[in-house]
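User: C-alpha cells for Ubiquitin-conjugating enzyme E2, please.
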Amino acid sequence: MFQGPYAPAILRVQISFPQAYPTAPPLVTLSTDIFHPLVTPLTTYTYTTGSASGETVSATDEERLPPGGFSLRHGFPQWFARTRRSTPAAPNSQPEASGAVGPAGGASIHPPPVAKILKYIQASFSDEAILDSVTVESAANPGAYHAWRSYRETQFTGGLQPMTKSSAAPATRSRHPGEWNWEGVWEERVKKGINNSISDGVVYGAGVEGDDVVRFAQVDRDILDKAKARILKQA
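Assistant: Done. Predicted C-alpha cells:
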C-alpha cells in the first residue's frame, strides 16, 4: 500500500475461483495477518457470510470464510442474494469455498471484471471512505469494524453516527462488541500488522510458503539498475 491508513503494508493476496463461478464469487484470502473490517482473523475463526453477530460459529457452518478470508459482501452484494431452500442439502454435499449463494430464482449474473475486484480490494485498504461505508453486516471482522469506527470518531465530530453504548449494562449480561471500549485498538493492531508485513523475514520469504507466485529478493542498487536496463532494452 502506497497511501491510506494501511500504508506502507505489503499484503499477499490469493484469489481462487470455485466451480460455480460466476454464480458464486471468487474466494479472496490474505496470508498477511492484518486487522481489517473485511478480513477474517488468521488466528481465530469468527465469521460467516450470513452472520453479523461476530460470535464464534461451528465448523459445520455452510457459509463461512476461512481465516484470512476477505469479504466481498460489501463491495459486490449481488453475489450474496439468497435463494429460499425448500429442501435441506444432501448430507454428503460440500459447500462452495466462498460460501456464496446465487441470486434469487437461480438467474445468472454478470460478474464484475477481476480487475474491478482487485481495485476494490486495494481501495478498501487505501481509501478511508470505503472503510467508513462498511456495515457491521458485511464486516468479516466485527472487532476491526468497531475499532475503526471508534478511531474515526476521535478524528471527526460528525460524518459518522456514534456507536450505541450502554451506560448501565447489567453485570450479569455479557456486552456486545459495540459496547466495548475500542479506544486505541485500531491504531495498535494495524501498526503491528503493518510492521510485521514489511519485516525482512516476511518480505523476503522466511516463514512464507514456498508456492507463492510473487517473491521479493534483496539486491543492491547496481544489480537492480542492470536488471532494469535489460528489461527496457527488450521492451
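User: Anything notable?

Assistant: The chain has a mean pLDDT of 74.
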